[in-house]
Amino acid sequence: MFVVGLTGGIGSGKSTVAGLFAEFGVAVIDTDVIAHQLTAPGGAAMEEIHARFGDEVISADGTLDRAALRRLIFSNTSARHQLEAILHPRIRQEVEHMLATLRAPYALIVIPLLVETGGYRDVLDRVLVVDCPEAMQIARVRARSGIDEVEVKAILAAQAGRAERLAAADDAILNTATPEALRTQVATLHRRYLSLSTTPSP
Q: What pTM value is reported for the model?
C-alpha cells in the first residue's frame, strides 16, 4: 500500500489537514489518537507510565493527569525519552496492525514527531509537512488548549524547527490562509497521491 506520513509542529493544523484527507475517503491513522487510547483508563501503557513516573502524573480518579505529564516531559528531556520508550513501540505495533487490515488506495499516517525520531521511514512513500509561522502556532495552541506562552514555547523548543521539517518533506502544505485555500491544497495532493498509488514501482 502507498503510505504518506503527515507531520508538522504543534498548532500547525495537522488534525485539520488529516480531516480533509479523510473527507476524500483516505484511510487516516493518527498516532496521537492511538497514544490517547494507550493512556486512557485501563489503557495498555498506563501501568508502566504509573510505575515510571509515580502518582504525580495520576489524577485522584485514577486517570492520567495529562497536564502534569506534559509539564514534566517538556521540562525534563530524560523523562520525555522515557515516555517515548513506553509509547512509541506500542504505537508502532498498532499502526502496523492497522496498515495490514486497510483496504484503500493509500493511507495517511499522522506522526507529529516524524522528523524528530526518524521513525516510520521504512513504511512511508512520501512525507507531507503542514507548515505555518511559529507565531501562528503559538496563537493557535493558546486559543485551543489554554496553555500559556512559556509552556507552548517549551514544546516548540523540543520539536524540530520549520527549516528542519521542510528539509525532510517531499510535499508541504502552507496553512496560513482560508479553509478554502487549505482544502484546495489537500485536493491537489490527494489527486497526486492517488496517481502515485496506482503507478507501478520501477
A: 0.89
Strands ordered across the beta sheet of 27-30: 27-30, 106-110, 2-7, 126-131, 171-174
- DSSP letter for each residue of 73-97: HTT-HHHHHHHHHHHHHHHHHHHHH
Residues 6+ apart with CB under 8 A from 41: 62, 63
CB of 112 within 8 A of CB of 165? no
Residues 140-187 have pLDDT tens digits of 999 988 888 888 898 898 888 899 999 999 999 999 989 999 999 999
**DSSP 8-state assignment for residue 128:** E
Q: Which residue has the cell 495517511?
A: 108
Distance CA 42, CA 65 (A): 14
Per-residue pLDDT tens over the stretch 94-150: 999 999 999 888 999 999 989 988 889 999 999 999 999 999 999 999 998 888 888
**Band of the pLDDT at 201, cuts 50, 70, 90?**
low
Which amino acid, one-letter code, is at 170? Answer: D
Calculate the CA 48 to chain-centre distance: 22
Asked whether 45 and 57 are in contact (CB, 8 A), the reply is no
